[in-house]
Amino acid sequence: MPERRKKAAASGEDRISTLPDALLLHTLSLLASEEAVRTCVLARRWRNLWRYTPSLRLIHDDDIDVDIDVDESSLVHDDDTDFDKPRFSSAEHFNKFVSHLIVLRHRSPLVNCEIELYPDEDPGTCQYIQAVQLWIQYALACQVQLLNIFDNYGDQRLLLNVPFISSYLMTVHLRNVSLECSMNLSSCLVLENLEMTHCNIFMHKISSKSLKRLNMTECFFRTEVRTRFSFPGLLSLHLEDGDFRTPLLENMPLLETAFIRLEERCLDRCDNGDGNCDQESCEGCYGFHHYQSVLLNGLSNAINLELLAEPKKYIFRRDVAWCPIFGRLKTLVLNEWCVAVDMYSLVRVLQRSPILEKLTLQINNNRDIKSAIGVEGNHIPAKLSFVCTQLKVANIECQELNEKVYIIWNILRACGVHPEKISIKIKHTVSSFDGM
To answer: Which PANTHER family match (predicted)?
Structure first.
């Protein structure tokens, strides 16, 4: 240890308290709010610092049990604290702490606010849910820029009915909460990032002119109608494994990258015939006939697209009938849906992608995929009136070399793709179809 540090240690000098306020506040912002408050007893310098930290982390961990006395504005410790007890003994205790904290903190500006719902024993009768709404309103009043609300223990117990009106909020993360129709994100004038995981979406429409990045994973949408997405400034879209009805995408002229995956829990499936009955009596198809396009029109300006679906999910195949021109599309990833019934969907998408440079086809699941062979064995359209002049790479990923792969290879060749640009990957082994 250097001599200067030895002298400071020997003299009991408090070197941390001599640091600039900005550095101390940054340090406090890394702590849970309860831990930040407890620093008020360290020294006179620390007594009020916690009030001005730019981060409010209303979370609960296994730690010591504390409380705030709002009248004395000081932290009260219990000498008989049991270190094996949870930090907060109940939801009521947690609510009391946060309520006192908000009163003492006033409206000091916030950069980040993190709210974790308390693990109430009975998720259906959580008594402090309305209090959480007030915490969110408080954060918005403090000009919060990043808002993170999550519930690791309940089943979408929190129904957000707070008016999200802010000129400062830029990022929102939501997990295991519900959004009702009264929530209007368009009132957040500078909101750029929205991430939702395991959320219930009860809204008829979600809109924002400022939003640039949207990530939705395993969210629950409405069953009777499609939720409309209106994001004219969106650059990046990630929509993965949604439940019930696939949302309807309105035009997104600035879109650069999109990932869409429709898996088992999506209700947009048809088990009748070839999966294209479109009858009101069909539980899977009902609701589609009101729209010409659900997804593809909204994705038409993307530069990079990844469109994945189980073979019986019909949305992409139906959209192809009104397929727009993908005038900016350079990279495209498709899976079994585009060859599930015949090759029409694949040919149609290629035809409408004039500057496509890289194509990846993932044909890894033969379950529920019908034969592409017609009655007379005519697998390739008689005439392909277009060529993929810009296509530099075409990757076919499959489990085995079968007739379907052979047909895809012939279609690509008929579109003017040179054999050297086509590669086939089988179980991590790449080979080319030279001589086919």
So the answer is: F-BOX DOMAIN-CONTAINING PROTEIN, OS11G0201299 PROTEIN
